[in-house]
Amino acid sequence: MQRANITFGIFPLNTHRKLLLWMLPALAIGLHCIAACGLPSTPDDFVPEADGPVFAILQSGDHVYVGGEFTTIGGVSRNRLAAFHSRTGEIDPDWHPNITRTESTPSVRALLVYNDKLYVGGLFDTVNGSVTRNSLAAFELAGDGRTGLVESTWNPDIRWDSGTGSVNRLVSDGSLLYAGGFYDSVNGSLERHSLAAFEFAGGGNTGVADSLWHPSLRHINGGLGVVYGLVIEGDRIYAGGGFDVVNSFQVGRSSLAVFELAGEGRTGIVDANWNPDPRRSPSGGIGSVMVLLVEDTALYVGGVFDTVNGSVARRNLAAFELAGGSNTGAADPDWNPNVGTTASSVDALATDGSQLFVGGHFATVNVSVTRNDLAALELAGDGNTGLVDPEWDPNLSNDILTWGAPSASVTVPSGHGILVGGYVTEVGGEPHNHLIGFGTFLRAAASVPEAIWADY
Q1: Considering the domain boundaries, does residue 1 fall inside one?
Q2: Residue 277 within any structural domain of the chain
Q3: Structure confidence at residue 88 as a pLDDT band (50, 70, 90)
Q4: pTM, two decimal places
Q5: In total, how many domains does the chain have?
Q6: Domain residue limits at 100
Q7: With contact defined as beta carbons under 8 Å apart, do 3 and 425 qualify?
Q8: Who has the most CB within 10 Å: 41, 97, 174, 434?
Protein backbone atom coordinates (compact mmCIF):
# COMPACT_ATOMS: atom_id res chain seq x y z
CA MET A 1 0.00 0.00 0.00
CA GLN A 2 1.38 3.37 -0.96
CA ARG A 3 1.44 6.22 1.52
CA ALA A 4 -0.43 9.46 0.92
CA ASN A 5 1.31 12.77 0.44
CA ILE A 6 -0.13 15.47 2.68
CA THR A 7 0.55 19.13 3.11
CA PHE A 8 -0.63 20.98 6.13
CA GLY A 9 -0.84 24.15 8.10
CA ILE A 10 -1.81 24.80 11.66
CA PHE A 11 -4.46 27.10 13.00
CA PRO A 12 -3.59 29.78 14.01
CA LEU A 13 -3.18 30.61 10.35
CA ASN A 14 -1.22 33.37 8.68
CA THR A 15 -3.94 34.96 6.57
CA HIS A 16 -3.01 38.60 6.07
CA ARG A 17 0.11 38.60 8.27
CA LYS A 18 -1.92 38.22 11.43
CA LEU A 19 -1.52 35.55 14.05
CA LEU A 20 -4.06 34.05 16.40
CA LEU A 21 -2.48 34.23 19.84
CA TRP A 22 -5.16 32.49 21.91
CA MET A 23 -4.54 28.75 22.16
CA LEU A 24 -5.63 25.84 24.29
CA PRO A 25 -3.04 24.99 26.95
CA ALA A 26 -2.92 21.47 25.54
CA LEU A 27 -1.11 22.76 22.47
CA ALA A 28 1.00 25.32 24.20
CA ILE A 29 2.85 23.46 26.93
CA GLY A 30 5.12 21.13 25.03
CA LEU A 31 5.61 18.39 22.49
CA HIS A 32 5.30 15.41 24.78
CA CYS A 33 1.95 16.67 26.05
CA ILE A 34 0.29 16.37 22.65
CA ALA A 35 -1.49 13.06 23.21
CA ALA A 36 -1.70 13.22 26.99
CA CYS A 37 -3.21 16.71 26.93
CA GLY A 38 -6.03 15.91 24.56
CA LEU A 39 -5.05 15.80 20.86
CA PRO A 40 -6.41 12.41 19.81
CA SER A 41 -4.99 10.07 17.20
CA THR A 42 -8.51 9.17 16.06
CA PRO A 43 -10.38 11.53 13.70
CA ASP A 44 -13.27 13.80 14.61
CA ASP A 45 -16.62 12.66 13.24
CA PHE A 46 -18.02 16.06 12.23
CA VAL A 47 -15.46 17.38 9.74
CA PRO A 48 -16.94 17.24 6.20
CA GLU A 49 -15.33 14.61 4.00
CA ALA A 50 -14.63 15.13 0.29
CA ASP A 51 -14.72 12.88 -2.76
CA GLY A 52 -11.31 14.07 -3.95
CA PRO A 53 -8.04 15.34 -2.51
CA VAL A 54 -7.86 18.57 -0.50
CA PHE A 55 -4.73 20.64 -1.19
CA ALA A 56 -5.38 23.89 0.68
CA ILE A 57 -7.10 24.82 3.95
CA LEU A 58 -7.57 28.29 5.40
CA GLN A 59 -9.70 29.69 8.21
CA SER A 60 -11.08 33.23 8.07
CA GLY A 61 -13.70 34.41 10.51
CA ASP A 62 -16.49 31.88 10.91
CA HIS A 63 -15.57 29.93 7.81
CA VAL A 64 -12.97 27.36 6.82
CA TYR A 65 -12.12 27.41 3.12
CA VAL A 66 -10.86 24.26 1.42
CA GLY A 67 -9.57 23.76 -2.11
CA GLY A 68 -8.48 20.73 -4.09
CA GLU A 69 -9.74 18.36 -6.78
CA PHE A 70 -13.04 17.38 -5.20
CA THR A 71 -16.50 17.82 -6.71
CA THR A 72 -18.49 16.94 -3.58
CA ILE A 73 -17.80 17.80 0.06
CA GLY A 74 -19.99 17.13 3.05
CA GLY A 75 -22.47 15.59 0.63
CA VAL A 76 -22.85 18.90 -1.24
CA SER A 77 -21.81 19.52 -4.84
CA ARG A 78 -18.87 21.95 -4.94
CA ASN A 79 -16.30 22.18 -7.74
CA ARG A 80 -12.77 22.33 -6.26
CA LEU A 81 -13.50 25.07 -3.70
CA ALA A 82 -15.87 25.22 -0.74
CA ALA A 83 -16.48 26.96 2.58
CA PHE A 84 -17.87 25.39 5.72
CA HIS A 85 -18.87 26.92 9.02
CA SER A 86 -16.15 26.66 11.62
CA ARG A 87 -18.55 25.84 14.47
CA THR A 88 -20.83 23.33 12.79
CA GLY A 89 -18.88 21.82 9.89
CA GLU A 90 -21.82 22.56 7.59
CA ILE A 91 -21.08 23.58 4.01
CA ASP A 92 -22.12 27.16 3.25
CA PRO A 93 -25.32 26.69 1.23
CA ASP A 94 -24.87 29.77 -0.97
CA TRP A 95 -21.14 30.11 -1.65
CA HIS A 96 -19.97 28.24 -4.76
CA PRO A 97 -17.29 29.90 -6.96
CA ASN A 98 -17.38 26.86 -9.28
CA ILE A 99 -13.76 26.30 -10.36
CA THR A 100 -13.42 24.46 -13.69
CA ARG A 101 -10.98 23.83 -16.53
CA THR A 102 -11.78 23.29 -20.17
CA GLU A 103 -9.39 20.52 -21.19
CA SER A 104 -8.43 18.55 -18.09
CA THR A 105 -8.89 18.21 -14.33
CA PRO A 106 -8.86 21.54 -12.48
CA SER A 107 -7.49 21.99 -8.98
CA VAL A 108 -7.21 24.61 -6.25
CA ARG A 109 -3.80 24.61 -4.57
CA ALA A 110 -3.41 27.91 -2.73
CA LEU A 111 -5.64 30.18 -0.63
CA LEU A 112 -5.06 33.58 0.96
CA VAL A 113 -7.42 36.12 2.53
CA TYR A 114 -6.59 39.81 2.33
CA ASN A 115 -9.04 42.47 3.45
CA ASP A 116 -12.44 41.18 2.36
CA LYS A 117 -11.39 38.93 -0.53
CA LEU A 118 -10.29 35.33 -0.96
CA TYR A 119 -7.41 34.86 -3.40
CA VAL A 120 -7.37 31.45 -5.04
CA GLY A 121 -4.51 29.88 -6.97
CA GLY A 122 -4.32 26.57 -8.76
CA LEU A 123 -4.81 25.03 -12.17
CA PHE A 124 -8.03 26.28 -13.79
CA ASP A 125 -9.32 28.55 -16.55
CA THR A 126 -12.97 29.25 -15.69
CA VAL A 127 -14.84 30.38 -12.56
CA ASN A 128 -18.46 31.26 -11.78
CA GLY A 129 -19.53 29.02 -14.64
CA SER A 130 -18.35 31.18 -17.55
CA VAL A 131 -15.81 33.80 -16.40
CA THR A 132 -12.28 33.31 -17.72
CA ARG A 133 -9.56 33.31 -15.06
CA ASN A 134 -6.26 31.55 -15.63
CA SER A 135 -5.00 29.98 -12.39
CA LEU A 136 -5.45 33.01 -10.12
CA ALA A 137 -8.65 34.79 -9.10
CA ALA A 138 -10.17 36.83 -6.27
CA PHE A 139 -13.61 36.15 -4.80
CA GLU A 140 -15.96 37.66 -2.25
CA LEU A 141 -15.86 35.86 1.10
CA ALA A 142 -18.56 33.44 2.23
CA GLY A 143 -21.41 34.45 4.52
CA ASP A 144 -24.56 36.59 4.55
CA GLY A 145 -25.87 34.90 1.40
CA ARG A 146 -22.86 35.72 -0.76
CA THR A 147 -22.37 33.30 -3.65
CA GLY A 148 -18.64 33.59 -4.33
CA LEU A 149 -18.63 36.14 -7.14
CA VAL A 150 -15.27 36.70 -8.78
CA GLU A 151 -13.71 40.18 -8.68
CA SER A 152 -14.75 41.51 -12.08
CA THR A 153 -11.74 43.66 -13.00
CA TRP A 154 -8.87 41.75 -11.36
CA ASN A 155 -7.25 39.22 -13.71
CA PRO A 156 -3.47 38.57 -13.49
CA ASP A 157 -3.80 35.95 -16.28
CA ILE A 158 -1.20 33.32 -15.31
CA ARG A 159 -0.06 31.33 -18.34
CA TRP A 160 2.46 28.77 -19.51
CA ASP A 161 3.32 28.41 -23.19
CA SER A 162 0.11 30.33 -23.98
CA GLY A 163 -1.94 27.74 -22.08
CA THR A 164 -2.94 27.62 -18.44
CA GLY A 165 -0.12 27.90 -15.92
CA SER A 166 -0.39 26.87 -12.29
CA VAL A 167 -0.19 28.67 -8.95
CA ASN A 168 0.95 26.54 -6.02
CA ARG A 169 1.51 29.09 -3.21
CA LEU A 170 0.28 32.56 -2.30
CA VAL A 171 1.80 34.87 0.32
CA SER A 172 1.62 38.58 1.07
CA ASP A 173 3.82 41.23 2.64
CA GLY A 174 0.78 43.43 3.25
CA SER A 175 1.37 45.47 0.10
CA LEU A 176 1.61 42.94 -2.70
CA LEU A 177 0.44 39.41 -3.48
CA TYR A 178 3.22 36.97 -4.37
CA ALA A 179 2.30 33.93 -6.47
CA GLY A 180 4.62 30.97 -6.92
CA GLY A 181 3.94 28.15 -9.35
CA PHE A 182 4.74 27.08 -12.88
CA TYR A 183 4.25 29.75 -15.56
CA ASP A 184 6.13 31.93 -18.02
CA SER A 185 3.86 34.94 -18.52
CA VAL A 186 1.37 37.14 -16.66
CA ASN A 187 -0.85 40.07 -17.61
CA GLY A 188 -1.15 38.76 -21.15
CA SER A 189 2.46 39.03 -22.33
CA LEU A 190 4.73 40.07 -19.44
CA GLU A 191 7.50 37.50 -19.01
CA ARG A 192 7.71 36.04 -15.49
CA HIS A 193 9.29 32.71 -14.57
CA SER A 194 7.18 31.00 -11.88
CA LEU A 195 7.28 33.83 -9.32
CA ALA A 196 5.71 37.29 -9.53
CA ALA A 197 4.26 40.04 -7.33
CA PHE A 198 0.84 41.58 -8.03
CA GLU A 199 -1.28 44.45 -6.83
CA PHE A 200 -4.31 43.39 -4.79
CA ALA A 201 -7.87 43.60 -6.04
CA GLY A 202 -10.06 46.59 -5.26
CA GLY A 203 -10.53 50.11 -6.51
CA GLY A 204 -10.56 49.02 -10.12
CA ASN A 205 -7.16 47.27 -9.91
CA THR A 206 -6.62 44.74 -12.68
CA GLY A 207 -3.91 42.58 -11.11
CA VAL A 208 -0.87 44.27 -12.63
CA ALA A 209 2.46 42.62 -11.79
CA ASP A 210 5.36 44.64 -10.43
CA SER A 211 7.10 45.80 -13.60
CA LEU A 212 10.66 45.44 -12.29
CA TRP A 213 10.61 42.49 -9.86
CA HIS A 214 11.58 39.30 -11.70
CA PRO A 215 13.61 36.66 -9.76
CA SER A 216 13.35 34.31 -12.78
CA LEU A 217 13.58 30.70 -11.56
CA ARG A 218 14.88 28.42 -14.30
CA HIS A 219 16.83 25.28 -15.06
CA ILE A 220 20.33 25.54 -16.45
CA ASN A 221 19.19 23.74 -19.62
CA GLY A 222 16.75 26.58 -20.29
CA GLY A 223 13.67 24.90 -18.87
CA LEU A 224 11.20 26.62 -16.61
CA GLY A 225 11.58 26.16 -12.87
CA VAL A 226 8.70 25.55 -10.49
CA VAL A 227 7.81 27.02 -7.08
CA TYR A 228 6.01 24.93 -4.45
CA GLY A 229 6.86 26.76 -1.24
CA LEU A 230 6.90 30.46 -0.32
CA VAL A 231 7.34 32.27 2.96
CA ILE A 232 8.03 35.91 3.82
CA GLU A 233 10.17 36.86 6.78
CA GLY A 234 11.21 40.46 7.37
CA ASP A 235 12.21 42.09 4.10
CA ARG A 236 12.88 38.82 2.26
CA ILE A 237 10.90 36.14 0.47
CA TYR A 238 12.08 32.51 0.52
CA ALA A 239 11.16 30.35 -2.47
CA GLY A 240 11.46 26.58 -2.75
CA GLY A 241 10.63 24.22 -5.57
CA GLY A 242 12.53 22.73 -8.48
CA PHE A 243 15.12 24.98 -10.15
CA ASP A 244 18.88 25.39 -10.37
CA VAL A 245 19.45 28.96 -11.58
CA VAL A 246 17.86 32.30 -10.65
CA ASN A 247 18.13 35.95 -11.71
CA SER A 248 18.10 35.13 -15.44
CA PHE A 249 20.68 32.31 -15.31
CA GLN A 250 23.17 34.46 -13.40
CA VAL A 251 23.20 32.68 -10.01
CA GLY A 252 23.11 28.96 -9.21
CA ARG A 253 20.68 27.79 -6.51
CA SER A 254 19.48 24.24 -5.89
CA SER A 255 15.70 24.56 -5.45
CA LEU A 256 15.88 26.99 -2.51
CA ALA A 257 16.69 30.71 -2.57
CA VAL A 258 15.87 33.97 -0.82
CA PHE A 259 15.17 37.25 -2.60
CA GLU A 260 14.57 40.88 -1.76
CA LEU A 261 10.90 41.81 -1.72
CA ALA A 262 9.29 43.75 -4.54
CA GLY A 263 8.69 47.50 -4.52
CA GLU A 264 10.69 50.72 -4.58
CA GLY A 265 12.49 49.73 -7.76
CA ARG A 266 13.79 46.39 -6.48
CA THR A 267 14.28 43.68 -9.11
CA GLY A 268 14.30 40.50 -7.02
CA ILE A 269 18.03 40.03 -6.47
CA VAL A 270 18.96 36.79 -4.74
CA ASP A 271 20.88 36.88 -1.44
CA ALA A 272 24.49 36.30 -2.46
CA ASN A 273 25.57 34.51 0.73
CA TRP A 274 22.61 32.31 1.68
CA ASN A 275 22.61 28.93 -0.08
CA PRO A 276 21.50 25.80 1.87
CA ASP A 277 21.88 23.70 -1.30
CA PRO A 278 19.47 20.75 -0.78
CA ARG A 279 20.46 17.87 -3.07
CA ARG A 280 19.88 14.21 -3.77
CA SER A 281 22.65 11.61 -3.60
CA PRO A 282 24.42 9.80 -5.09
CA SER A 283 23.97 11.87 -8.24
CA GLY A 284 24.25 15.22 -6.50
CA GLY A 285 21.31 16.46 -8.52
CA ILE A 286 19.07 19.22 -7.23
CA GLY A 287 16.59 18.38 -4.53
CA SER A 288 12.92 19.30 -4.58
CA VAL A 289 11.59 21.69 -1.94
CA MET A 290 7.86 21.30 -1.35
CA VAL A 291 7.15 23.40 1.74
CA LEU A 292 8.69 26.19 3.84
CA LEU A 293 7.91 27.42 7.33
CA VAL A 294 9.55 30.02 9.57
CA GLU A 295 9.35 29.60 13.33
CA ASP A 296 11.40 31.73 15.69
CA THR A 297 14.86 32.04 14.09
CA ALA A 298 14.74 28.91 11.93
CA LEU A 299 13.53 28.14 8.42
CA TYR A 300 12.10 24.62 8.20
CA VAL A 301 12.38 23.06 4.76
CA GLY A 302 10.58 19.92 3.62
CA GLY A 303 10.81 18.10 0.32
CA VAL A 304 12.89 15.44 -1.39
CA PHE A 305 16.62 15.62 -0.59
CA ASP A 306 19.25 13.86 1.49
CA THR A 307 22.13 16.31 1.73
CA VAL A 308 22.39 20.04 2.46
CA ASN A 309 25.26 22.52 2.81
CA GLY A 310 27.37 20.44 0.43
CA SER A 311 27.74 17.25 2.47
CA VAL A 312 25.57 17.43 5.61
CA ALA A 313 23.13 14.50 5.79
CA ARG A 314 19.51 15.59 6.15
CA ARG A 315 16.75 13.39 4.77
CA ASN A 316 13.73 15.29 3.44
CA LEU A 317 13.51 17.75 6.36
CA ALA A 318 15.97 20.29 7.76
CA ALA A 319 16.13 23.51 9.76
CA PHE A 320 18.33 26.38 8.58
CA GLU A 321 19.47 29.73 9.88
CA LEU A 322 17.63 32.64 8.29
CA ALA A 323 19.24 34.90 5.73
CA GLY A 324 20.86 38.16 6.76
CA GLY A 325 24.33 39.55 7.30
CA SER A 326 26.87 36.93 6.31
CA ASN A 327 24.60 33.94 7.07
CA THR A 328 25.08 31.16 4.54
CA GLY A 329 22.04 29.02 5.33
CA ALA A 330 23.77 26.58 7.66
CA ALA A 331 21.64 23.68 8.88
CA ASP A 332 20.98 23.31 12.60
CA PRO A 333 23.84 20.97 13.63
CA ASP A 334 21.74 18.97 16.10
CA TRP A 335 18.26 18.80 14.58
CA ASN A 336 17.94 15.83 12.23
CA PRO A 337 14.52 14.07 12.27
CA ASN A 338 15.58 11.79 9.38
CA VAL A 339 12.21 11.38 7.67
CA GLY A 340 11.59 8.35 5.48
CA THR A 341 13.84 7.07 2.72
CA THR A 342 15.12 8.33 -0.63
CA ALA A 343 11.67 7.43 -2.01
CA SER A 344 9.89 9.61 0.58
CA SER A 345 8.90 13.27 0.71
CA VAL A 346 7.84 15.94 3.20
CA ASP A 347 5.03 18.02 1.73
CA ALA A 348 3.52 19.78 4.73
CA LEU A 349 4.77 21.67 7.76
CA ALA A 350 2.94 23.55 10.46
CA THR A 351 3.52 24.57 14.05
CA ASP A 352 1.60 25.78 17.06
CA GLY A 353 4.79 27.19 18.54
CA SER A 354 5.61 24.19 20.70
CA GLN A 355 5.96 21.35 18.17
CA LEU A 356 6.28 20.80 14.44
CA PHE A 357 3.63 18.82 12.57
CA VAL A 358 5.09 17.06 9.53
CA GLY A 359 3.08 15.52 6.72
CA GLY A 360 4.01 13.82 3.48
CA HIS A 361 4.83 10.46 1.97
CA PHE A 362 6.84 8.49 4.51
CA ALA A 363 6.62 5.50 6.85
CA THR A 364 9.35 6.28 9.40
CA VAL A 365 10.93 9.16 11.29
CA ASN A 366 14.00 9.28 13.56
CA VAL A 367 15.45 6.54 11.30
CA SER A 368 13.26 3.68 12.53
CA VAL A 369 10.17 4.95 14.38
CA THR A 370 7.01 4.07 12.44
CA ARG A 371 4.85 7.03 11.47
CA ASN A 372 2.70 6.85 8.37
CA ASP A 373 2.53 10.24 6.62
CA LEU A 374 1.89 12.40 9.70
CA ALA A 375 4.02 13.00 12.80
CA ALA A 376 4.71 15.56 15.53
CA LEU A 377 8.32 16.52 16.28
CA GLU A 378 10.13 18.74 18.74
CA LEU A 379 11.23 22.06 17.27
CA ALA A 380 14.83 22.90 16.51
CA GLY A 381 17.03 24.81 18.96
CA ASP A 382 18.52 24.29 22.42
CA GLY A 383 20.23 21.11 21.24
CA ASN A 384 16.96 19.43 20.21
CA THR A 385 17.44 16.62 17.72
CA GLY A 386 13.93 16.40 16.24
CA LEU A 387 12.52 13.59 18.37
CA VAL A 388 9.06 12.37 17.43
CA ASP A 389 6.21 12.49 19.94
CA PRO A 390 6.14 8.92 21.27
CA GLU A 391 2.37 8.71 21.74
CA TRP A 392 0.63 10.62 18.95
CA ASP A 393 0.29 8.35 15.90
CA PRO A 394 -2.73 8.90 13.60
CA ASN A 395 -1.46 6.31 11.08
CA LEU A 396 -2.63 7.69 7.73
CA SER A 397 -2.74 5.63 4.57
CA ASN A 398 -3.90 5.75 0.97
CA ASP A 399 -3.77 3.73 -2.23
CA ILE A 400 -3.29 6.82 -4.44
CA LEU A 401 -0.03 8.72 -4.71
CA THR A 402 0.75 11.51 -7.14
CA TRP A 403 3.95 13.47 -7.11
CA GLY A 404 5.05 16.77 -8.60
CA ALA A 405 2.65 19.23 -7.00
CA PRO A 406 1.49 20.11 -3.51
CA SER A 407 -0.65 17.17 -2.54
CA ALA A 408 -2.48 18.12 0.61
CA SER A 409 -2.94 20.56 3.45
CA VAL A 410 -2.94 20.57 7.26
CA THR A 411 -3.95 23.41 9.50
CA VAL A 412 -4.60 24.09 13.18
CA PRO A 413 -7.88 25.92 13.84
CA SER A 414 -7.51 28.57 16.54
CA GLY A 415 -5.16 26.36 18.47
CA HIS A 416 -7.66 23.49 18.70
CA GLY A 417 -6.22 20.40 17.05
CA ILE A 418 -5.37 20.07 13.39
CA LEU A 419 -7.14 19.68 10.06
CA VAL A 420 -5.49 17.44 7.48
CA GLY A 421 -6.27 17.32 3.78
CA GLY A 422 -4.86 15.34 0.89
CA TYR A 423 -5.15 12.01 -0.84
CA VAL A 424 -5.72 10.38 2.52
CA THR A 425 -8.58 7.85 2.60
CA GLU A 426 -7.75 5.86 5.74
CA VAL A 427 -6.84 6.74 9.30
CA GLY A 428 -5.87 3.91 11.63
CA GLY A 429 -7.23 1.46 9.08
CA GLU A 430 -10.67 3.08 9.01
CA PRO A 431 -12.08 5.02 6.00
CA HIS A 432 -11.83 8.82 6.22
CA ASN A 433 -11.83 10.72 2.97
CA HIS A 434 -9.50 13.61 2.14
CA LEU A 435 -10.35 16.07 4.96
CA ILE A 436 -9.73 14.95 8.53
CA GLY A 437 -9.77 16.67 11.90
CA PHE A 438 -7.92 15.65 15.04
CA GLY A 439 -9.24 17.36 18.16
CA THR A 440 -10.43 20.33 16.13
CA PHE A 441 -12.28 23.27 17.59
CA LEU A 442 -15.20 23.16 15.20
CA ARG A 443 -18.02 22.24 17.57
CA ALA A 444 -16.36 23.45 20.75
CA ALA A 445 -15.70 26.92 19.40
CA ALA A 446 -19.06 28.29 20.45
CA SER A 447 -17.81 28.33 24.04
CA VAL A 448 -14.25 29.39 23.29
CA PRO A 449 -13.17 32.95 24.21
CA GLU A 450 -12.91 35.36 21.32
CA ALA A 451 -9.53 35.04 19.65
CA ILE A 452 -7.04 37.88 19.99
CA TRP A 453 -5.43 39.08 16.77
CA ALA A 454 -2.08 40.85 16.70
CA ASP A 455 0.65 41.66 14.24
CA TYR A 456 3.51 39.22 14.36
Answers
A1: no
A2: yes
A3: confident
A4: 0.88
A5: 1
A6: 6-455
A7: no
A8: 97
Find the angle CA(358)-CA(364)-CA(370) to the nearest 5 degrees: 105
pLDDT band at 180 (very low <50, low <70, confident <90, very high): very high
- Does residue 422 fall inside a structural domain? yes
Q: How far is the C-alpha of 141 from the C-alpha of 154, rounded, in Å?
A: 15
Q: How far apart are CA 208 and CA 169, in angstroms?
A: 18
* Angstrom distance (rounded) from CA 171 to CA 189: 23
CATH number of the domain within which 314 lies: 2.130.10.10
Per-residue pLDDT, 398:
62
Please state, as a whole number, how many other Cβ atoms lie within 10 Å of the Cβ of residue 404. 11
**Tally of CA atoms within 13 A in the half-sphere of 432 that contains its CB:** 26
pLDDT higher at 282 or 13: 282
Whole-angstrom Cα distance, residue 106 to residue 246?
29
Whether the CB-CB separation of 92 and 176 falls below 8 Å is answered with no
360 lies in some domain: yes
Quote the pLDDT of residue 39: 72
In angstroms, what CA-CA distances link 2 with 142, 287, 344, 362? 36, 22, 11, 9
Amino acid 287: pLDDT: 92
Residues 6+ apart with CB under 8 A from 409: 6, 7, 8, 9, 54, 55, 56, 57, 66, 68, 348, 419, 420, 421, 422
